[in-house]
Amino acid sequence: MTLLGASGFRSAPGVFVEPLHTEFGWSTATISSAVSLNLLLYGVVSPFAAALMERFGMRRVVSVALLLVAAGSGLTVFMTSAWQLVLLWGVLVGVGTGSMALAFVATVTGRWFVARRGLVSGVLTAAQAAGGLVFLPLMASLAGSVGWRVASLVVAGGALVVVPLVVFVLRDRPSDVGTVAHGADPADAPAEEVVTGGAARRSLTVLRDAARTGTFWLLAGGFAICGATTVGLLNTHFVPAAHEHGMPATTAAGLLAVVGVFDVIGTIASGWFTDRVDPRKLLAVYYVLRGGSLLVLPFLLAPTAAPPLWAFIVFYGLDWVATVPPTVALCRERFGARAPIVFGWVFAAHQVGSAIAAIGAGLIRDLSGSYDGAWWSAGALCVLAAGLSLAVPRMIVRPAPAPAAG
Hints:
Layout: H1 2-11, H2 17-24, H3 28-56, H4 58-74, H5 82-98, H6 102-112, H7 117-145, H8 148-169, H9 199-210, H10 214-244, H11 249-274, H12 279-296, H13 307-319, H14 324-335, H15 339-368, H16 372-390
Helix pairs in contact: 1-5, 1-7, 1-8, 3-4, 3-5, 3-6, 3-9, 3-15, 4-5, 4-8, 6-7, 6-15, 7-8, 7-11, 7-14, 10-11, 10-14, 10-15, 10-16, 11-13, 11-14, 12-13, 12-14, 12-16, 14-15, 15-16
């Protein structure tokens, strides 16, 4: 529920662009700056939030994050200047939702599960991905019927409703309820690490150590391309690209929503496969299939949603964030207890890739008069991401030494 809400809260500002422009006369660029800062902080805050969860616990961090979202959204009804929008939606909501991003998934799966970690990370990631599907239609309907202020208050109220659930139900570790992680042997349960010191220093120390390994850069590079070819490109530019081919914007937006529906199915399935297949190979397959679909997309766009385009929507939706469970699994295998913070930094690379692609695709469109070059470039990048994934070194499992004779 927390992840579902966090994703919905983060994506809600997208439906407020036109109402804010109409009421205050702020330019689209000014309003978009708040959304851009929101996206950036959503990624950058993630590793620091993971370190805070180590230091103070998930319950406290998530509770504070929800309160930040409620404050950032609720106080917008009183704003009169653009800088207040940047502060509230950009900073407060960005920091709040970033504290409940995918590093939270890595923390939960690492602490509470040994068996079926891939499946659990797939389900939690699907919840995060579905947030926009649940909230955006409601936000758009409210903003269009009773005004954006009511929609903002609904977001604030939704965040506040989840706080008591987190405080009274969410627990930081299995030992808090007298048990061990699911699938763990109680006799072999490792001692829980006690983390002291500043969370910021801890996060930066983990980054320094991880950055000395080739595995980190291979995972970060691949995940940056993942962000570039999903959130940065398709999420940002599919609707205007389809509209240029004569398709109504409402139809294109509806197709994008269908991508999200199949994304939930694909992510859960990916988690199931992650428990059974080499995550490196899964990532390579996902990136190659995504790249192939992007290469053919320019030939499928038309005034109507013909069957070939529907095939792309279904296929691409199944592959949208299927990359998360195997990436989390690789971080866990390679970096152990530090995996949530390491994955937080890898996710930050994902958001940087998203931002670069959002700007880059717009530049390609302005310079060439078409989005075709953006789709083809993204397809080529996906092939590169597949190569980076396969280049991640194999884990060497050494056999236990034989007991001494006698």
